[in-house]
Structures are given as structure tokens and as C-alpha cells.
């Protein structure tokens, strides 16, 4: 049975059982605790937490997932993957244990027709109810294993939260294995023979801060069946890689790299790694993840480089991964149309990133060999980090090299250097890590956001937090949670509102507002005065900042639409920042925009602004919005009901942010920069409203200063500048001639020395043009001198020129320059016959001269 049929049968079966079939959510979750969608339940986490009421009480999905916690095992084991598909059925306060078990058993035995004797069950040792349900289904007691909490109890995800016992279904592959206790093989006493194919979680408890299990107000069912494992079972193979989900990809890899699969175990591992990783790359990039050195982009880069390195092990000496993309698209494009739409773009991203990595890989391998040679087989943490930081050499590749060659790798030392770098980067960028906000997940209420309709409202304090939750605070920086708020929390690229909340006994200045978990809006700021839980106050959003932010957010939508119209529909948002002062928009595109294209985009956006079109917002179903053409962006999370922001027929997007009511409110839209972020991703920064007016005033003031300096009117400015350029060129030419005439070559020849039969000239100068020194060195070499070394002092630096007679092979100008520049506290190098370098320590010139003599004596 092929994978396509398994998916279809699963979804059709549960649809007939009253489940709403939903499409796979993005691999990028709207969850500060998660970097990726790691399981089928992730899109429904707010429902499990009780923060959101379900629209449908029965749901079934085939969810695309990413996990990288066991990436080192991928390719080496039968069932570890980075990208995988999770079949799942969910119940929110509807059916529970009995029906969940009966549905799973019916699907496996009657739809998939797996013989009952091939199946085993495990339950939580204290879950008598689940045990009895399985017995009533007809499972013999000897095939139902009672296991402990570490095996059959799920959650909570943090110290607190929903959790509950689970039951697992295992398939017996029949593999001959030895048991740990000498008894009949079963899932608890063997390794490898029994494969877990389905896990049914009974979420019925809430674990509080003290570890107490409290009953949830609504019991839920969360199940997960790995499609790759089901496919292996149905196709009678032990390795997931030998199913139809992977073989077409493996065959493409074999064709490209001219290597056979299933002939050499070591090569098979590399082929499987590539086959797994290319699936992850295609889906991650299609969902809006791009290579970078932080967060999701770093994970993507790590996966790509690992795949490229295994290609290198198979003989690849040039980029090849992009040529495997089509095999993934051909196999899975009918199920996931987004990878068809983005296939060409995905190939460009992969090709560019792989090309850059391969350029550094060989250099990195040379350094590794040198490090282990000098250290006796050890790779210290500092060297490992330098390899990563300078050459993009990932730690997992070093791990592979260490495992394959018996090297000792100081991973702990690497991690120390790595964390220091990440802290510096986060501080510089003002960013925070993916954080766990479990303290707020335990709250059983939600904050109502009313900021679309008003910027001022009465509020009541529900929670106060400093280091911990407290009942009252006074004159302190803290976090407050209210029953209602007009403050927009930071999300979807839009920064949060700022403002003030006034209480009877104090004022709270709101600096930042965020969503730690779905439904809870937290206000962070500084309190002057005293506030306690239960106090009432008046919240007022800073109107000017809100309006400025709204201008930039609506302008971002217009910019997105204009880029798609002018550059093409391949343009998609790849990140954004909307704040009062500016907007920053990252988008997918292969090359830099021309000046003409930038002007066309700017003109088109301003045309829509001047038409003063009403900005409409409407709540509708997700399917209806997308069918009408509304764009869904990867940063946003969408439920069944979504908010659509529309500007006539020009722009229509799903968006929860704040916007102007009419495009005329935006004012002048001005692009101030366009550049590259990473391979295939460009960035535009732009301004609107009063900021653009101030920008024009600044340009006007500069123009006036230029006119005053030139003593010119508007018409004569450029003519005067051209004349100045001509005059400067003439003066520079005269100055160079003057410098050359200052240096008497014949007198310099009198200072030539001899060492090891090498005639050399070493001389200090001050303030000469480098070009002049090069010409002089050429003339001296032409006079029969073997080597010329010039030190040219310029302010507090030294420029070093090394020129050698071309046929004097025993000297290398580049190596001499490199050595001498180190003495001068700098660096540089060049060709065998000519090199230029520099240094910061002028006082070390005499030491450099001595070093030169030492070099010549060794010749």
C-alpha cells in the first residue's frame, strides 16, 4: 500500500467518524516555546490548555513536522527523521479513552488489515480503565504491557500544564532478537523488533506547581501515528527509507552522484541522510525559513550543510542538492501544493547556500587536519568554534569527523564560545531567545483585546509579576495582566503599543506588551506608586505611536502587493518589522532591485496612498478568505475564523495587526534602502507619515548646505561639482608626479644591501601614495635589484610593499609580506612576485626589518 493511499484512508476513515479534516499547519508555529511544529497537536495547543474554545470537537489531520533533537541518528537508524508526517485524530471534550482506542483498533485491523497477532499494546501501569478497554476489544492480557510513567505518561511540556496517561500500539516486525530477560520477546524486553506505530494520549489532568494532578474541566484526546512507520509496516520493509516516501528521492541521489544504494553500509548512511534532509529543506524553505546564523535559519543551515557534507563523502565536488528538489516535489507536491509553487525558489536558495558552504568546506577540513596533527588527535573548543565562526563549519560535522576518525572533540568548550557569541548577537540586535513562559501557562483566564476599536479603556489588575507572582508592588519594574486591554502585543512583526495606565495610587508606564501564551497579554513597564491585584485603572495607548505604527503596517501590505506586481508572484514575505519610525520588509527574490524597479515600487505604493482608498477589515472563515485570494503569511497563526485586511483589489492579506482606516493617512511612502539578507532574500526599509516629511526636510537642509559651500544656485550645483572633480583629478596627477620626482631612484640604489646572494632594498617613507611606491619599486627591480621592501607610514599605521624579481623563485613576496605584517600587528599577503600588507604598530618597523634579514639568511 503506497503512502498516498494510507493518508487518504486515514483521513476518510475519521471524516466518516464525524471528524473535521483540516490541512497541515505551517512548520512555523505561533508559539514562543517552540521553534518548529514538532507534533500533530502543536496547532491545537491553546485548546488543550483551555485558552481557546474549540470550533470543532473532533479533528483529524496529516501534519508536517520537524524535529532535530536526534539529528546525529538520522540515516544510521531505521526510523529517525528530521522531517516527518504525523497522522492524528483529536477530541476536545468529546469522546475519550474507549472510543479513541476502538477507532484506532478499527482503522489498523479493518482498514489497514494488519493481523491482530502482529500487534502489541502498552498502557500506563495505573490506568486500569485503558487496560480493561483493550481487554474488551479482544487483546489477550499477555499482550498488554503495563509500563511506568517514563514510558506511558505524557507531559506536561514544562513544570506545569495538561498531561495524562497514554497507550501505545506496537507492530511486531518478526526480527530475530535476543531478549533482555530470556522470556518471549515483547516491546519492553527487546530492542528493534517492535515498532511503535500509534500513540494515544488521554489528556485528563493539569499538573500544578507542586506536582499535584488536578482534573481538567475538559478531557481531550491527542493521537499520533507516524506515516513513515505505517508505510514501512504496510510495505513490508524494516527501514522507513525503503518505502515509497524515500526511494524515489534515493534513486535521484544515486543517479546524480553515481553511487549505488544498498551496496555499501557507509555510503547508505550518507544517502539516507541526504534523502531525509532534502525533504526537510524543501518544506522548511517553502514555509518561509531561510538560512541564517540564528533561530530557525540556523537549524536550516545546519541541515543543509550536513547533507552537503555527506554528499562530499559520496564524491560530490560541486553543488548537487538543488537537483534533488524535483524528486521531493514529484513525490509530495499533490499533497502539499506549496512546495510545487515554491520549487524554483527553493532550488535557488539551496544552490546558493550549498555553493558558499562548499567553498569553505575544503579549507575547514585542512584546518581540522592541522589541529588534530598538532594536538595528537584532539579538537579543542576554541578551534572548533573558530571553524564554525570563520568557515561556517558546523559542530555536527566535527562530531561526524571525530566519530569516524577517533578524534577527541571538546564539545563543552565549543558550546561555551558559542553561547558567548549568541549573547553578543542578541544584545546587539535587541532580540530574545525562544523562551519558556510556563509561569503564565498556568493562568486559567484570558485578556480581551479591544485595541482595534479604542485606545482607552477601564482595566482591572488580575496578575502582578516581578520575579514571581505577587499580590502588590510599589515603585518597581514589573509585569501586569488585566482583564481587558487596548494595548496591542508584539506579534506578526508589529512592535507593541506603548502608553500609560493610571491607578488611584500610581501610574504604570507601559514599555512593552507581549503574548507569552495564547490569550494572555502581558504589560511590562515601570510603576511609580503602588498597585495591588484587583485594582482598577484606565489604560491609555500612546496615540501618536499607534497611528505611526498603523501607517507603516498598512504601507507594508501595499509594499508587498507592489513588489509582487512589479517583480512577480514568486515574491513572498520572509519577515517584517513594523514600528512607529519605519518599516522593514524581507521578501523572497533572487537579485538586487534596480533603481528603476525601486522607483516603480515607490510610485505604485504612493499612487494607492493618493487614491485615499478605505482599508477594510473583515472576519471570515480561513477557507473563505484564502479562496477569495487573501494571502496567508508564515508568521501568523490562523484559526477557523480569520481577520482579513483589504485595500480594494490591490492588497488582501490575513493579518491581526493594527492599520489605518484609509490609505490617505499613510502620507508619503519613501524607500530608504534595499539590500540582501541571505541567499534569495532581500530587505527593504521604508518610512511614512511625519518621518518621511522629516526625512525630506533633512535632505532639503543638506541641499542648502551644499549650495552655500559651493556658492551656487540650484541650476549651477552640478556644474560646479563636475568642475571640482576635474580640478581634483588634475591636482592629484600633479601631486603624484611631484612625489615621484621627490624620490631619487639613483640615490635609493646606493642603499641596496646583499644577503645570501640576494640584492635587496629596504626603505621607510612617510605619507606617499601606494601607487607611487609601486611604480618606484618596479623601476628599482628593473635596475637589477632582487627584492624591494618599502614601509610607508601613514598617520598611526604602516603600509608594506614587497616586490620581487619574477624569476627569483626561492622568494615569495606574499609570504614575506604576511610574516612582516604580523610583526607590525597587522595582516595581508599577495602574489609570489608582489604583495601589499599593513600594520598598526609603527614603532615595530625596525623589528620588521630585522625579521626580513632573518628570512633572507635562511634562503
TrEMBL record:
Which coenzymes or cofactors are required?
A: Zn(2+)
* Coiled-coil annotated residue ranges, if any: 721-755
- Which keywords label this protein? Aminoacyl-tRNA synthetase, ATP-binding, Coiled coil, Cytoplasm, Ligase, Metal-binding, Nucleotide-binding, Protein biosynthesis, RNA-binding, tRNA-binding, Zinc
Q: What is catalyzed by this enzyme?
A: tRNA(Ala) + L-alanine + ATP = L-alanyl-tRNA(Ala) + AMP + diphosphate
Q: Which CDD domains match?
A: AlaRS_core (cd00673)
As given in the record, the signal peptide range reads none
Cite the EC number: 6.1.1.7
Residues bound to Zn(2+): 553, 557, 655, 659
Predominant subcellular localization, coarse grouping? cytoplasm
Q: Where in the cell is it found?
A: Cytoplasm
**What enzyme category does the UniProt record give?**
ligase
Query: What does this protein's record comment on cofactor binding?
Result: Binds 1 zinc ion per subunit.
Q: Which family does it belong to?
A: Belongs to the class-II aminoacyl-tRNA synthetase family.
Domain comment in the entry: Consists of three domains; the N-terminal catalytic domain, the editing domain and the C-terminal C-Ala domain. The editing domain removes incorrectly charged amino acids, while the C-Ala domain, along with tRNA(Ala), serves as a bridge to cooperatively bring together the editing and aminoacylation centers thus stimulating deacylation of misacylated tRNAs.
Role played:
Catalyzes the attachment of alanine to tRNA(Ala) in a two-step reaction: alanine is first activated by ATP to form Ala-AMP and then transferred to the acceptor end of tRNA(Ala). Also edits incorrectly charged Ser-tRNA(Ala) and Gly-tRNA(Ala) via its editing domain.
| PANTHER family found in the cross-reference section | ALANINE--TRNA LIGASE, CYTOPLASMIC (PTHR11777:SF9), ALANYL-TRNA SYNTHETASE (PTHR11777)
Q: Which HAMAP family match?
A: Ala_tRNA_synth_B
What is the name attached to this protein's record? Alanine--tRNA ligase
**Organism of derivation:** Thermosipho affectus
Amino acid at each position: 500500500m503506497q503512502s498516498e493511499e494510507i493518508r487518504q484512508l486515514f483521513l476518510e476513515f475519521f471524516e466518516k467518524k464525524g471528524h473535521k479534516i483540516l490541512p497541515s499547519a505551517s512548520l512555523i508555529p505561533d508559539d514562543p516555546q517552540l521553534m518548529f511544529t514538532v507534533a500533530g497537536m502543536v496547532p491545537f495547543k491553546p485548546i488543550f490548555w483551555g485558552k481557546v474554545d474549540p470550533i470543532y470537537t473532533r479533528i483529524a489531520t496529516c501534519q508536517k513536522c520537524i524535529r532535530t533533537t536526534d539529528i546525529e541518528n538520522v540515516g544510521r537508524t531505521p526510523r529517525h527523521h528530521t522531517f516527518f508526517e504525523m497522522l492524528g485524530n483529536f477530541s476536545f471534550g468529546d469522546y475519550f479513552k474507549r472510543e479513541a482506542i476502538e477507532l484506532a483498533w478499527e482503522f489498523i485491523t479493518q482498514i489497514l488489515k494488519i493481523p491482530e497477532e502482529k500487534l502489541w499494546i502498552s498502557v500506563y501501569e495505573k490506568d486500569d480503565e485503558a487496560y480493561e478497554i483493550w481487554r474488551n476489544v479482544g487483546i489477550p492480557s499477555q499482550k498488554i504491557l503495563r509500563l511506568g510513567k517514563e514510558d506511558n505518561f505524557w507531559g506536561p511540556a514544562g513544570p506545569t500544564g495538561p498531561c495524562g496517561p497514554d497507550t501505545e500500539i506496537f507492530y511486531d516486525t518478526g526480527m530475530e532478537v535476543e531478549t533482555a530477560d530470556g522470556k518471549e520477546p515483547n516491546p519492553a524486553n527487546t530492542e528493534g523488533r517492535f515498532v511503535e506505530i500509534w500513540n494515544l494520549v488521554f489528556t485528563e489532568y493539569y499538573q500544578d506547581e507542586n506536582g499535584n494532578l488536578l482534573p481538567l474541566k475538559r478531557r481531550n484526546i491527542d493521537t499520533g501515528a507516524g506515516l513513515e512507520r505505517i508505510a514501512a509496516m504496510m510495505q513490508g520493509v524494516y527501514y522507513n527509507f525503503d518505502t515509497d516516501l524515500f526511494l524515489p528521492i534515493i534513486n535521484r541521489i544515486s543517479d546524480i552522484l553515481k553511487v549505488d544504494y544498498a551496496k555499501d553500509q557507509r555510503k547508505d548512511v550518507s544517502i539516507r541522510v541526504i534523502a531525509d534532509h532534502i525533504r526537510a529543506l524543501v518544506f522548511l524553505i517553502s514555509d518561509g525559513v531561510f538560512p541564517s546564523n540564528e533561530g530557525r535559519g540556523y537549524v536550516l543551515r545546519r541541515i543543509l550543510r550536513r547533507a552537503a557534507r555527506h554528499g562530499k563523502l559520496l564524491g560530490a565536488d560541486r553543488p548537487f542538492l538543488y537537483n534533488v528538489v524535483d524528486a521531493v516535489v514529484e513525490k509530495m507536491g499533490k499533497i502539499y501544493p506549496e512546495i510545487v509553487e515554491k520549487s524554483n525558489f527553493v532550488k535557488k536558495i539551496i544552490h546558493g547556500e550549498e555553493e558558499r558552504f562548499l567553498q569553505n568546506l575544503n579549507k575547514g577540513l585542512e584546518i581540522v587536519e592541522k589541529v588534530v596533527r598538532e594536538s595528537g588527535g584532539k579538537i579543542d573548543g576554541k578551534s572548533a568554534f573558530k571553524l564554525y565562526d570563520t568557515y561556517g563549519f558546523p559542530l555536527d560535522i566535527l562530531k561526524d569527523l571525530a566519530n569516524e576518525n577517533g578524534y577527541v572533540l571538546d564539545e563543552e568548550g565549543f558550546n561555551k564560545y558559542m553561547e558567548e557569541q549568541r549573547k553578543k548577537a542578541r544584545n546587539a540586535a535587541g532580540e530574545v531567545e525562544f523562551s519558556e513562559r510556563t509561569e503564565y501557562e498556568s493562568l486559567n483566564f484570558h485578556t480581551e483585546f479591544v485595541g482595534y476599536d479604542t485606545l482607552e479603556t477601564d482595566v482591572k489588575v488580575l496578575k502582578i509579576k516581578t520575579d514571581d507572582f505577587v499580590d502588590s508592588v510599589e515603585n518597581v519594574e514589573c509585569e501586569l495582566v488585566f482583564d481587558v486591554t487596548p494595548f496591542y502585543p508584539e506579534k506578526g512583526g508589529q512592535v507593541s503599543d506603548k502608553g500609560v495606565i493610571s491607578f488611584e495610587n500610581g501610574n504604570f508606564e507601559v514599555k512593552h506588551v507581549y503574548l507569552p501564551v495564547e490569550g494572555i497579554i502581558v504589560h511590562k513597564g515601570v510603576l511609580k506608586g503602588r498597585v495591588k491585584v484587583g485594582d482598577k485603572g484606565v489604560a491609555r495607548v500612546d496615540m501618536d505611536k499607534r497611528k505611526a505604527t498603523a501607517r507603516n503596517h498598512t504601507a507594508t501590505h501595499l509594499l508587498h502587493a507592489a513588489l509582487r506586481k512589479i517583480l512577480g508572484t514568486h515574491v513572498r514575505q520572509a519577515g517584517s518589522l513594523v514600528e512607529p519610525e519605519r518599516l522593514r520588509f524581507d521578501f523572497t527574490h533572487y537579485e538586487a532591485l534596480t533603481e528603476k524597479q525601486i522607483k516603480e515600487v515607490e510610485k505604485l505604493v504612493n499612487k494607492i496612498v493618493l487614491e485615499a482608498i478605505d482599508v477594510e477589515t473583515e472576519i471570515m472563515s480561513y477557507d473563505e478568505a484564502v479562496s477569495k485570494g487573501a494571502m496567508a503569511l508564515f508568521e501568523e497563526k490562523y484559526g477557523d475564523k480569520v481577520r482579513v485586511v483589504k485595500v480594494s483589489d490591490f492588497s488582501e492579506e490575513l493579518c491581526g495587526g493594527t492599520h489605518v482606516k484609509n490609505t490617505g493617512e499613510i502620507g508619503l511612502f519613501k524607500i530608504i534602502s534595499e539590500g540582501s539578507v541571505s541567499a534569495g532574500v532581500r530587505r527593504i526599509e521604508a518610512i511614512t507619515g511625519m518621518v518621511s516629511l522629516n526625512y525630506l526636510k533633512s535632505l532639503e537642509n543638506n541641499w542648502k548646505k551644499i549650495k552655500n559651500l559651493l556658492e551656487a544656485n540650484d541650476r549651477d550645483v552640478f556644474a560646479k561639482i563636475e568642475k571640482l572633480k576635474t580640478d581634483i583629478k588634475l591636482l592629484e596627477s600633479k601631486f603624484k608626479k611631484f612625489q615621484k620626482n621627490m624620490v631619487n631612484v639613483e640615490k635609493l640604489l646606493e642603499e641596496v644591501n646583499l644577503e645570501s646572494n640576494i640584492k635587496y632594498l629596504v626603505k621607510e617613507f612617510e605619507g606617499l601614495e601606494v601607487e607611487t611606491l609601486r611604480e618606484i619599486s618596479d623601476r628599482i627591480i628593473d635596475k637589477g635589484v632582487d627584492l624591494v621592501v618599502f614601509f610607508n607610514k601613514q598617520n598611526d599605521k604602516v603600509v608594506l610593499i614587497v616586490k620581487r624579481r619574477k624569476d627569483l623563485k626561492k622568494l615569495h613576496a606574499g609570504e614575506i609580506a604576511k610574516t612582516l605584517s604580523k610583526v607590525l600587528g597587522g595582516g595581508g599577503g599577495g602574489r609570489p612576485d608582489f604583495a601589499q600588507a599593513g600594520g598598526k604598530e609603527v614603532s615595530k618597523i625596525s623589528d620588521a626589518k630585522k625579521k626580513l634579514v632573518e628570512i633572507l639568511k635562511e634562503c
